[in-house]
Amino acid sequence: MLGYLRLLFDNFTLTLLAVVAAASLLPARGLGALFFEGLTTAAIALLFFMHGAKLSRRAIIDGVTHWRLHLLVFGCTFVLFPLLGLTLRPLLLPLLGEPLYLGVLFLCVLPGTVQSAIAFTSLAGGNVPAAVCSASASSLIGILLTPLLVGLLLQVQADAAAGSTLEAIGAISLQLLLPFVAGHLLRPRIGAWVDRHRALLSRVDQGSILLVVYTAFSASVVEGLWGTVSPGQLARLTLACALLLALVLGLTAWLGRRLGFGRADQITIVFGGSKKSMATGVPMAKVLFAGSMLGPMLLPLMLFHQIQLMVCAVLAQRYARRAPLRTAG
Predict the structure, then answer these.
(1) Torsion angle, CA of 167/172/175/178, rounded to 10 degrees?
(2) Are 155 and 297 in contact (CB under 8 A)?
(3) Pairwise CA distance, residues 155 & 150, whole Å
(4) Which of 297, 257, 294, 255 is nearest to 276 (CA)?
């Protein structure tokens, strides 16, 4: 039982919950808030710089060769998810209220994960090279595409926070894309070092997320977040995230079979097309939305992230157990 709980709630998840509790009890104010804001901005720039240095030129080139799979994964990530978010509006808006529903919409327009999508694809026996290419490209394309989708789906909120869609793209490019490109251009010099220190990149990932979450929730708590989000809303939001994930998992599995992909590619489509990145989404929320809006924008992403890890861990193991039977047959 303890081992199963450790599978579902890893150290990072527990630390994330502790950070939310710390921000709720001891939110950063005044000069402290300014300090954490600057520290968070620097950590995010470092995060995307290292991601740029990690992505090889070969991975970008190889991504072109399996275009049907990548096109389907991109479609699920940037078209299917937003359509589901809009379709569920009559159900979710009355249940969650506007701030949390907008957070769900923001979740729907984010790029997919990289590390966990690849890890689950590998565990399940999927097409790992395709997963690497698809996840990396999704993360890169999302830096530009997500602000456009935010401008389309959350027009008033995006305008209030970033001035306009073009300004939002400019802010994303300056704070996220520029460090990413700089890191990739320097890969010939530092790429080997980055490849040898993958654990360091993971710590930068997690540390950046924790800093943004603390800063965001501090600002939202100061503005009265927990006075406006009730325990009942949190419970309904959890159910909404679970429903969204179930719909996407079912549709990606059906589309993979319906379009004639092999088993390994179907697995890649399921795990690549159903996941949303907190490593990219949290920094983007910081750039796109004002401080008091960050808490409601991040709550759906945090819940969805944990649910997707729990469900996909079980699903990947089921795929892995079925593989020998299908091979033998």
Answers:
(1) -110
(2) no
(3) 7
(4) 297
More confident residue, 159 or 296: 296
Closest to 118 in 3D by CA, of 272, 7, 326: 272
The dihedrals phi and psi of 64, each to the nearest 5 degrees, come to -70, -30
CA distances from 23 to 13, 199, 295 (A): 15, 27, 11
235 touches 302 (CB < 8 A): no
Indicate the fold that domain 12-318 takes in CATH. Answer: Na+/H+ antiporter like fold (1.20.1530)
Q: Which residue do the tokens 């996909």 mark?
A: 312
Of 158-172, 184-198, 297-311, 313-327, the one with minimum mean pLDDT is 158-172
Q: What DSSP assignment string belongs to 250-284?
A: HHHHHHHHHTT--HHHHHHHHHHHS---HHHHHHH
43, 211 contact by CB (below 8 A): yes
Q: Is it the case that residue 2 has pLDDT exceeding 50?
A: no
Query: pLDDT-based confidence at 82, cuts 50/70/90?
Result: very high
Task: Work out the angle at residue 220's Cα, subtended by the Cα atoms of residues 164 and 300, and round it to the nearest 5 degrees.
Answer: 75
Q: Tell me if residue 114 falls in helix, strand or coil.
A: coil
Amino acid making up residue 173: S
Q: What is the pLDDT of residues 257-311, one digit of tens each?
A: 999 998 989 999 999 999 898 777 877 887 777 666 777 888 898 888 878 877 8
Radius of gyration of the chain (CA): 19
Percentage of residues in the chain with pLDDT exceeding 70? 77
State the Cα–Cα distance between residues 67 and 134, nearest whole angstrom: 9
- What CA–CA distance (Å, rounded) separates 210 from 19? 7
Rounded to the nearest angstrom, the gap between the alpha carbon of residue 48 and the centroid of all alpha carbons in its chain is 14
Cα 247-271-251 angle, rounded to 5 deg: 25
How many Å apart are CA 143 and CA 191, to the nearest integer?
22
